[in-house]
Amino acid sequence: MHTLATLAPALGLTALQRGEQWPAASIAGQAHYPAHIPLPLVSPIDCAGHGELLPAGPAETELALATAQQAFTQWRLVPAPQRGELVRRIGDRVRTHKHELAALITLEAGKIISEAEGEVQEWIDICDFAVGLSRQLCGLTMASERAQHRLQEQWHPLGVVGVISAFNFPVAVWAWNAMLALVCGNSVVWKPSEKTPLCALAATRLVQDVVAGFDAAPAGLLGLLQGGTEAGRQLAADRRVALLSATGSVRMGRAVAQTVAARLGRSLLELGGNNAAIVTPSADLDLALRGIVFGAAGTCGQRCTTLRRLIVHESVADALLARLQAAYASLRIGDPRLPDTLIGPLIDHAALQQMQLALTAAEAQGGTVRQGGGGITQGVPNTGAYVAPALVSMPAQTAIVHEETFAPILYILRYRDLDEAIAMQNAVSQGLSSAIFSNDVREVEQFIGPAGSDCGLANVNAGTSGAEIGGAFGGEKDTGGGRESGSDAWRAYMRRATNTINYGSTLPLAQGVKF
Ligand code: NAD
């Protein structure tokens, strides 16, 4: 099994073998770290410390932003297909280090191996997508109302893109943003989660010599600022950050959005979810069961798209609950480095405490814990925060069900008619992911129609989690309204200029105005 000591050389993290403070690094565009409060490097597998890393302060943020701003002024002039070529090379590089990087994600975020490899695969996939996109940054040509005039729009590079990311996707969220930002002609400054700084460092190091070996790429194109809330605040407040893409809790999004709005900047928010699946009487229960268990218990309940509410028709509720209980009892919980483990640890003991508080609140609000919920110390590295995923029957959608608890708790609610189920699903403040399990075309169309699910993602006979990069990813309401990754999400990373071109010898005014 991998440890940091065995992985470090392959990922350029050798200093960690000595458990020393991280030295000032010489990554292109990476700031140097003076003495501020160190970030502990902790693995959730056993909550053991692996050393410390010194975070950036105001001076380093200033340096990183100034360098990124300078890099942008050069990079925006490089033709987009050439920018795509850099991203193609980055994708090739990631392919050759997929397993080592995934192993580091497992060590630092606690994901099981196949999910960690899936996360790196998302980086590879978004590279491929971005390479194609680099030849398709298209604008429209519109009919002008004036003779010998032409109207067109162009999409131009935007500036420095700031990326704040959460611990649970320590590499993929940055990659979705950074690979698109690069082909769109922008530079990037990344402030990763303080809980997963090594993944960020490894990802940055992986691309550093690719960038350095690409003649057209200026230094400072991909910057890294390690730190916590304060580093994120500085990024949000700085006018040089043309777009701030922030992924994390609703609480963080509210703070960041207000700071960015106060300077009339742009933000792209990917915040918390409280995702539901509706199971109708016509559902294929075998298929639904698989989607529900992976959605609710996978990643130990720590995905923004984790299934948190199951809204099931009363005619199938008992049968489904019995099958869910059996499936949950068979889940293998333990060290995520072991190949047969399905559920790894929570990120830390604070998350375990939050889970216990939520379960206590659910019981006080009339709920019954049907399965799981307790901490696990047998057969696991017993200093980690391991839990049995919980199934909780609720009599109604009470206050605790409206909250996103970032842990594997699935609240089960019953319904009689589909209107009631959809209303229940939409009643929460978050609007990220949703699903219906049904073989009835009318139910399906109602669910995905204009009066159906109000979420950014509405799936049919597929669970709430595990989105592909080809679609635009994001959610409504408190989830923040941002869209990342596929479809036309690239537009957020560019500015649109409308050009009116008069190729005649007179100057007619629009709307027939005489002057
Ligand atoms: P978090 O909000 O605690 O932290 C996320 C990031 O924001 C970190 O880098 C943190 O340092 C930074 N941050 C926190 N407060 C800040 C502030 N006031 N100003 C600037 N930066 C600040 O979230 P977390 O615990 O790391 O991740 C879990 C949360 O993220 C969940 O709510 C989950 O649903 C959400 N999430 C959403 C998506 C999505 O795409 N919608 C994806 C992953 C995670």
Automatic annotation (TrEMBL):
The active site is at E270. Homotetramer. Pfam families: Aldedh (PF00171). The keyword NAD applies. Its EC number is 1.2.1.3. It is an enzyme of class 1 (oxidoreductase). SUPFAM superfamilies: ALDH-like (SSF53720). Residues 42-496 form the Aldehyde dehydrogenase domain. Keywords: NAD, Oxidoreductase. InterPro entries: Ald_DH/histidinol_DH (IPR016161), Ald_DH_C (IPR016163), Ald_DH_CS_GLU (IPR029510), Ald_DH_N (IPR016162), Aldehyde_DH_dom (IPR015590), ALDH7A1-like (IPR044638). Belongs to the aldehyde dehydrogenase family. One of its GO terms (molecular function) is aldehyde dehydrogenase (NAD+) activity. This is aldehyde dehydrogenase (NAD(+)). It comes from the Bacteria.
